[in-house]
Amino acid sequence: MTIEEFILIKLKLIQKKHNFNPLVGIKQLNNNQDLIADFSIFAEYIRLIKKLKLNVEIPYKPFEIKSKVKVEENKIYVYFARLESNFSMWKIGHSKVPYKRGKALQTSNHESLNVIHVIPGSFELEQQILKYTIKYKTNGGSEWRSLDNEQVKLIVSTIRTSGPEFLSLSELSK
Fold first, then answer.
1. Span 35-49, average pLDDT
2. In 10 A of CB 76, how many CB atoms?
3. Alpha helices in the chain (DSSP H)
């Protein structure tokens, strides 16, 4: 058994029980002492994967947990959904019910698609993001982009903390 296989087995056991979001970190625990021990083991495996540059895909199923973003009725949200088989393929869209929209998209796609990020927004914000990321457009359609996780996290966190104004300044550079 390789170290990658060993770590993947251990991560699957932890994720079957808790389904931690690897992109969120410790703040998802909400000071729940019962989860801290398991999360620290989970985090240690993640650190090991990065340190040793292992080829291990962290198991995570966002549809199997309740969303951290409380979706309010009659508000529009911009969502970032990612293909499970290709972590660089993202669909950027808008919806009043983004998590249900993610499930609906799943029926029209033969590959698993997970809504990873949701931010309050509008059709206009979605269009700004699509224009900002135009250099990364794929052949999958007008809303599909080839972006890495860090690029998506940067876009989402900047919008959440500073607003969308930066989107009109330039395009995301390659």
1. 86
2. 16
3. 3-17, 33-52, 98-107, 123-132, 149-162
What's the distance, CA 149 to chain centroid?
7
Please say whether the dihedral angle defined by the alpha carbons of residues 156, 161, 163 and 166, taken in this order, is positive or negative: negative
Percentage of the chain lying above the pLDDT 70 cut: 82
Coil, strand or helix at 147: coil
Whether 113 contacts 102, CB under 8 Å: yes
Cα(145)–Cα(140) distance, rounded to whole angstroms? 8
C-alpha dihedral sign at 96, 102, 103, 104: positive
Residue 9 CA to residue 160 CA, distance in Å, equals 35
Domain boundaries in the chain?
3-61, 69-168
